[in-house]
Design goal:
The chain is mostly helical. It has helices at 3-21, 29-36, 40-46, 50-64, 67-76, 80-108, 113-139, 149-159, 162-171, 176-191.
């Protein structure tokens, strides 16, 4: 591994550790530099802004956590119901692992256009997963007639939003298993004929 790649990886690892430990709150570039054993200038040589670092951190976390492999059961499901259930299970298990980074992006987006773009990119990818699950239901002829594909996608995407997950798990104390089971049941009743 080259020195630049090693340094970049150290920075990303430090960012992940701090974001997760602080649940994304109040993590500054200087904090990340100290945690990586580098100067702030060294961090800025690799990442021009905090938003750029946060965006790179989300991609790094996805790769490290095996996002593509974890999505495979949803993509391989033999039915629309199976795909819907598998996607909700994936998301319900994945979100606690990326929450620190997600929270940091969510907080930064209000005042930082680059962070907002990174957040929107991540949420568009999640929305695409929702759309694929809804499209599979429709393909099976199981999407309830009261829903268009787009409206059902909108509703599932909102239902699975980080803020809703946060409210249910952080504020209400739901376990990951409880969140997954309830969301699967609600989604089936809401979207299926």
């Amino acid at each position: 591994m080259s020195s630049d790649v090693e340094t970049r990886t150290r920075i990303l690892e430090a960012a992940v550790r701090l974001l997760e430990a602080q649940r994304g709150r109040s993590v500054r570039m200087g904090d990340i530099a100290r945690a990586a054993g580098l100067s702030r200038q060294a961090v800025y040589l690799h990442f021009a802004s905090r938003a750029e670092l946060l965006a790179a951190t989300t991609l790094y976390v996805d790769k490290r956590l095996g996002l593509e492999q974890r999505l495979a059961p949803s993509r391989a499901a033999g039915s629309g119901t199976g795909r819907l259930d598998a996607y909700i299970e994936f998301w319900g298990n994945y979100l606690p692992e990326i929450y620190g980074v997600a929270r940091a992006l969510l907080d930064a987006q209000a005042n930082d256009a680059a962070a907002a773009a990174a957040w929107n990119e991540r949420m568009q990818a999640m929305r695409d997963g929702c759309r694929a699950a809804i499209a599979a239901l429709e393909s099976d002829g199981r999407l309830a007639k009261r829903w268009s594909t787009e409206e059902a996608t909108d509703f599932l995407w909102t239902m699975l939003s980080v803020r809703n997950w946060e409210q249910l798990t952080q504020a209400c104390g739901w376990s990951t298993g409880q969140y997954i089971r309830r969301m699967q049941a609600v989604a089936r009743r809401t979207f299926q004929e």
